[in-house]
Specification:
about 100 residues; mainly alpha; two-stranded parallel ribbon; 2 strands
């Protein structure tokens, strides 16, 4: 589970953005292991983070839900379908989702 300080950090970040007439978004970027080890591990941090964001009324941009969830091969967004950062396609899809969900 995420560290208890995490909630306080998010709370302070929300206060800072509100006081500066800005809007805070939390972008959840899933890791390679979420898909590689899906039958072995349960993503408790993901569940915890979503709960905290809901409590603090911070909008979540969930790249798992928006990009990966319905993709038959989520590994195609990683270089050579291996562990690491996203490849070009993964970053383009992620950027497009963030843009779509934050433009006004």
């Amino acid at each position: 589970e995420a560290q208890p300080e995490f909630r306080e950090i998010l709370k302070k970040a929300k206060e800072l953005t509100t006081n500066n007439n800005s809007k805070l978004y939390f972008v959840y970027i899933p890791s390679y292991n979420r898909y590689k080890l899906k039958n072995i591990i349960r993503d408790n941090n993901y569940i915890y983070v979503k709960k905290i964001l809901k409590e603090l009324n911070i909008p979540l941009i969930d790249i798992h839900e928006e990009v990966f969830k319905n993709e038959p091969n989520p590994f195609k967004f990683f270089p050579f379908e291996m562990f690491g950062h996203f490849n070009e396609e993964g970053y383009i899809k992620t950027a497009n989702v963030i843009y779509k969900l934050t433009k006004h």
